[in-house]
Amino acid sequence: MKFIASILLTALLSFVICLYMDWWTIAIVAFAVAILIHQRPLPSFLTGFIALFLLWGGLSWWIDMKNEHVLSHKLASLLPFGGSVFLMILVTAITGALVAGFAALAGSYAREGK
Amino acid sequence: MKIIPFSIATFITIALIVLLGTKLFIPAPLAVLLSPQHGVWQNAEPAGINYSTELSFPQLSGKTEVYFDERLVPHVFADNDRDAFFIQGYLHAKFRLWQMEFQTHAAAGRLSEIMGDKIGTLDVLNKVDRYFRRLGMGYAAENSLVLMEADSATKMMCDAYTAGVNACITSLSSSQLPLEYKLLGYKPEAWTNLKTALFIKYMAYDLAGGESDFEFTAAKNALSKIDFETIVPIRQDSLDPIIPSGTLFDKPAVTAKAPASADSLYFNYSKDTAALPVLPQKPDKDNGSNNWAVNGKKTRSGYPILCNDPHLGLNLPSLWYEMQIHTPHYNAYGATFPSAPGVIIGFNDSCAFGVTNAGRDVRDYYTIQFKDASRRSYLFNGEWKQTELRTERIKIKDKPDFIDTVAYTVFGPVIFDASYANRNNDGKNYAVRWKAHDASNEMKMFYQLDRAKNYNEYLEAIKNLHTPGQNCAFAAKNGDIAMWCQGEFPAKWRRQGDFVMPGTDSSYMWQGMIPQSENPHVLNPERGFVSSANQLPADTTYPYYIGPGFPNYRGWTINKRLNKMADITPQDMMDLQTDNYNVFAEMARPVLLQHMNEAALDADGKKYWNIFKEWNLRSDTGETGPVVFAVLWENLEKEVWADDIARIKTTLVPYQSSLLEGILRDSAFKFVDNINTQQKETLSDDVLAAFKKAVPVIKKAETDDRGSWAKFKDTHISHLTKLPALSRLHLPIGGGTHIINAAKADHGPSWRMIVSLTPETQAYGVYPGGQNGNPGSVYYDNFIDTWANGKYYTLWMMKKEEMADERVKFKMSFTK
Predict the structure, then answer these.
(1) Cα–Cα distance between B253 and B785 in angstroms, integer?
(2) Residues of A in contact with B724 (CB under 8 A)
(3) How many residue pairs bridge chain A and chain B with CB atoms within 8 Å of each other?
(4) With an 8 Å Cβ cutoff, are B13 and A27 in contact?
(5) Which residue(s) pair with B55 in the sheet?
């Protein structure tokens, strides 16, 4: 339950804060949620990772679908994705996921007893 | 707290943020670009986007409604002129901001600032930025800005436009920035009236900077007079000038006389072999255009039709942005320049107007003798005269600034000297006298043209056009048609400025300007049409020296066609504007056929020669004939010229007409002989040798599936950064050089327009691009296929009461 709630909260707060702040504030959100809703390190990491994987992957997938792939087709060959839109969305998702995952991990350790 | 694992996890998090968010370790800040709420995904506009919105800006004084049709063309209905210019600036910025800033940065010599000092092998700092600054682009723009702001109408126009652009810029959050800012990693700066002036000077560079003075000087130095005159003639045999031959011209008000020393100091043919500078950038030699207007006697409707297609570099986002502007004072529709207010080529409720490039040589060079290395004074009329030193600070991305100092003389800036030698290691200094340096207010022309009601108002408007000179076609609903070869041009003695001139005294300076009223022009000519296609404006009876290098074939074929046409409909004009008939090949083929020894050809050679013989002379997409002809001609030029021009210490490319007319006049054309061989080559030898070299090239093209004309020519529309992913490549379009449909590889008809001046205007147009400069928009390149197919859109001069029309897709409302 904690696990699911953390994921949803991390994703939601990340979305909201990124309406106003730079992209890397997702790390602060993931860190804060991990402190607020304490979990063991591994579940914490997965919380941050999955939350941002879903948020960034989902958002980029949604944007791309609405855009009818007009831009992604161009950018997937311009940026180092070998022309693969799927890879571009995957890398988007993993980029956010890694940062949030490690931030949540740090948050978990911050609350862990000695 | 578990300090060690906490520290490690924190460190990894920060490291990832730095690694993914900067360019320290990877070539692009991936996370910045990929963050769906900040980066490039934000530029992926929903295909079904709704642009309708209500906006308010304190700078506005009334209400403005902007109706966008299904092609995203805005129809602006403003309460007053000032608001209309504000809205135009806002819309240009909303849809084309990056391009506007990029173009004007280029003009100002500021590309290093955003692109770095090198792009691939291109030395941006030295070959672009320093060149444009030393050419005096900034100086020229500043001079013109003074006039633009001294005139109350153009000041209002530019101030409102600038305010509109800036209103859009300040409303953009960083996630809403155009894609290119994100990819290149910088942010837009405020727009200024100077930037509009810079843009106009960029057009002057593109259209009034096509001289070949250094090349001609090198050629003169190496060749005899007669040879030079053959290679660079001032008039072609197959010329049909813009102003019909036989038109009478007034006695000239200005008579330019060559200085007494010219024979020894200037016309010193074949005396010198020193290297000369090479301009690092040159405008495309085919920057040109077609325009024509036919009167009511030649049309089915009984009303005039005006047509125009400016041939320019084809890029994405397009140079043009289509719009309608309606205020209580005027109602204009047409192609606008993102960067400048007003409609540039278009029509209003009374008349239509279009331009082609005049192509006159208004840029000359003078050798300067500095007193010493400080460049603070130079010899002029027997005295040491002070220069003005202008400091140019060039910012470079990720590097310290570069400071360039340019000396200004009575002629203009010293473009080449020891600090910017550019191949001329002879220690000479060259100042450039360029008409674009002189203050002029071209914005006033568009201000007046957009609201012109008749011929006289058109004439008043175009008097403001000084540089770049244009052939301005006009047609009105009252039946008038006219053409003015307009601009402010120096009155020159024969060959003045075709070569570098001595600058130690005033004797070689321009002696005066041709009075505007003496520019070649024609109103309602007997033949029922006016036309221009960059050919020589007038025949030799025109009392001023015009210069060499005017393309003659498009004009020749257009006039021939228009002469024969009657009962003309807009559809006929579309067919003519997109016509792929190759008149150059028509003239060249007989002499080539006559001088080919077919017996000497192998099986491949015979096959291609037969294709050439049977070719219908149309450069249509699927034809192989034009491929054979193009490769053959290119090789024939090498066979004929290479040995002769090897003596010239520069890259002079003789005009195609010089070779064709040379061999048409006399098959024993002197240059067909290779001066490096014992025997005397004939034209037949050259044609055979050229064709034998052409055959493997044609065969290779065929094997690579590039054997048909469109594939061989390979027209493409590149993004301004040349990034292929943002470009449209391999377009199926015919035409090419010397053809009415002048679509070359990356250059050609940038806006095709046909306006039938019936009581209810009927107009058609298309440009190879789209209204939205965002590569992530479905409106980015949606006109390109229509353009390539030679099709047109109906241009809708919307009336306010048509606001409920189904063509209206979105509505933007602007209030105070």
Answers:
(1) 51
(2) 77
(3) 132
(4) yes
(5) B814
In this prediction, residues B43-67 reach a mean pLDDT of 96
Question: What distances in angstroms separate CA B161 from CA A114, B58, B60, B193, one per listed residue?
Answer: 66, 14, 11, 8
E strand or H helix at A54, and its extent?
helix A41-66
- Measure Cα distances from A106 to A49, A98, B4, B31 in Å: 13, 12, 10, 20
Q: Is residue B437 within 8 Å of B136, Cβ to Cβ?
A: yes
What pLDDT does residue B25 have? 73
pLDDT value for B287 = 83
Q: Which two tokens stand for residue B370?
A: 């500095």
Q: Which residues from B are below 8 Å from A41, CB to CB?
A: 5
Show residues of chain B in contact with A95, CB under 8 Å: 20, 30-31, 34-35
Closest chain A residue to B10 measured between Cα atoms? A106
Q: Token pair of B108, please?
A: 């100002």
Is B813 an interface residue toward A (CB < 8 Å)? no
pTM of the entire predicted model: 0.96
Q: How far is A108 from chain B (nearest CA, A)?
A: 8
Which residues, other chains included, contact A23 with Cβ-Cβ below 8 Å and sequence gap of 6+?
A: A96, B21, B31, B32, B35, B37, B38, B39
Between B246 and B411, residue with greater pLDDT: B411
Mutate to test the interface with A, among B11, B14, B35 (most CBs of A within 10 A): B35
Tell me what the mean pLDDT of segment B132-161 comes to. 98
ipTM (interface predicted TM): 0.96
**CB distance from B617 to chain A under 8 Å?**
no
Give me the half-sphere count of Cα atoms (radius 13 Å) on the Cβ side of residue B506.
7
Tokens of B608: 């291609």
Q: Would you say residue B652 has pLDDT above 90?
A: no
| For residue B651, pLDDT beyond 90 | no
> Residue B425 — pLDDT band, cuts 50, 70, 90?
low
Centre a 10 Å sphere on the Cβ of residue B7 and count the other Cβ atoms it contains.
13
How many whole angstroms separate alpha carbon A31 and alpha carbon A103?
Answer: 5
Q: How far apart are CA A78 and CA B719, in angstroms?
A: 12
Torsion of CA B211, B217, B219, B222, to 10 degrees: 180
Of B733, B719, B721, nearest in space to B785 by CA = B733
d(CA B205, CA A59): 45
Query: Among residues B16, B10, B14, which one has the least CA distance to residue A109?
Result: B10
pLDDT mean over A48-65: 97
Please name the residues in contact with B735: beta carbons below 8 A apart, sequence gap of 6 or more.
B578, B580, B619, B741, B742, B743, B748
Contacts of B231 (CB under 8 A, 6+ apart): B219, B223, B641, B645, B652, B654, B655, B658, B671
